[in-house]
Amino acid sequence: MKIIIIGCGRVGAGLAKNLVEGGHSVAVVDKDPLAFEQLGDKFKGQTILGIGFDREVLLKAGIERADGLAAVTASDEANVVAARIARDIFHVPRVVARLYDVRQAEIYKRLGLQTIAPTSWGINRIADLLLYSPLETVYSIRGGDVELVEAEIPPLLVGRTVRDLTVPAEIHVVSITRANKTFLPTLGTSFQAGDLLHLALITASADRLKELLGY
User: Fold this and answer.
1) CATH fold of 2-133, please?
2) Cβ(99)–Cβ(82) under 8 Å?
3) Is the pTM for the entire model greater than 0.70?
4) In whole angstroms, what is the distance from residue 74 CA to residue 30 CA?
5) How many Cα neighbours within 13 Å face the side chain of 101?
6) Which single residue of 9, 23, 46, 112 has CA 20 to 30 Å from 103?
7) What is the pLDDT of residues 112-158, one digit of tens each?
């Protein structure tokens, strides 16, 4: 995948190295030339000096071909501007913005932006948001320790019950949307093809949920 990272601080540099090691094409943008030193001499990605929400800088970074963009500078405003440009103008499929002021999270959520707060901004978590698509995060509660995610029922679970997808204190099916109607299921409710699930889970249990869903 082609990923653009705006901001080469500790998180941005760590994310860039993580993604490159995973075989992805990465371009890192920062206005401070010294920031790129955090990437190390062996970094194989692209580094671009400039403002992360400047159109020409983004074009140079390859935003027209980008699969994802993470805006992780120290400025909420810069992160949101870069994220909105990526999503609304260049239609980048996966966009994540780091947000320090969690009071603004609901506003940005309404704008359709995926944000991540300082307490949940782990490098692996941001990488998951950029690269992983079958589970769509609908809402992150408070510090991000609990999330509400959306997922289509996979064929292997059709005919199984909510009980089979429940892990006490970790994963719970909150609601099911079926034939344009949403209802609260019981543990004995059977899944049907085309069901859209909303699940509440501990963020640390995301990998376990993926295994249960067969992703």
Assistant:
1) Rossmann fold (3.40.50)
2) no
3) no
4) 11
5) 11
6) 9
7) 677 776 655 567 667 766 775 566 666 767 656 788 888 889 888 99
